[in-house]
Amino acid sequence: xxxxxxxxxxxxxxxxxxxxxxxxxxxxxxxxxxxxxxxxxxxxxxxxxxxxxxxxxxxxxxxxxxxxxxxxxxx
Amino acid sequence: xxxxxxxxxxxxxxxxxxxxxxxxxxxxxxxxxxxxxxxxxxxxxxxxxxxxxxxxxxxxxxxxxxxxxxxxxxxxxxxxxxxxxxxxxxxxxxxxxxxxxxxxxxxxxxxxxxxxxxxxxxxxxxxxxxxxxxxxxxxxxxxxxxxxxxxxxxxxxxxxxxxxxxxxxxxxxxxxxxxxxxxxxxxxxxxxxxxxxxxxxxxxxxxxxxxxxx
Lengths: 75, 214
Description:
The complex is a heterodimer. Chain A is mainly alpha-helical. Chain A has a domain at about 30-60. Chain A has helices at about 5-20, 40-60, and strands at about 30-35, 35-40. In chain B, helix 2 (about 50-75) runs antiparallel to helix 4, helix 4 (about 80-110) packs antiparallel against helix 5 (about 120-140) and helix 5 packs antiparallel against helix 7. The longest helix of chain B is centred in the middle third of the chain and has 30 residues, at about 80-110. The model of chain B has no long low-confidence stretch (mean pLDDT about 90). Chains A and B meet through helix 2 of A and helix 4 of B.
């Protein structure tokens, strides 16, 4: 059974209103493209920060350590 | 008057057929005496690279605590209240730090070949815990109950269906994903972490490649 003409007309109006291009999705952010590799700038910065943290953990002196002069623990 | 069978065992050597005795003996031999919570470490442990394992563990504790609070409040609470937003953010950022610390820990252990000296099981429990953590984080993103989680589920379903597990692990079923996230996967990852730490205590911290093991 077909809907009454008034309902059909109202649904058409709603459809037109919803189709208006005033809802635009936010952009997905900036990306770096290098051949087949594609990565967001955010993720690239985080990976870079982790690499810096890794290198710092290797080269920075640990508080309380005295190099080779430290006494050996009796394990 | 009958004599009970247990009366006959008093003062006799432990019965190896008794599973409690076997379990007790196994526990006593798993970690050497005094090594479970040592107050001294080898000199080569005085390096920042040895800190990232315990940093990962600390982040995991924060994840469990904040996750417990989120479970108490529920989705409506963490979406609408200021305190809910705060705890939700604590949960997210402790996960971010958990993965960052774990990956730096992984790099450090990989480059010092941490599987040396009968530590292969320690290495493998860490690898499987890492993979399990990825699954736990994934089901967490699916449990946010927002458009982001719907988008991720819609994108993931095709890949999981393609490998044939969609019928058992349905990312479009938020109830199933929430229960995997708050019960099954945290239990598995937590158990693996406990075994991993016990193995570290049993075999000791791996020395640098050019150092003499102490």
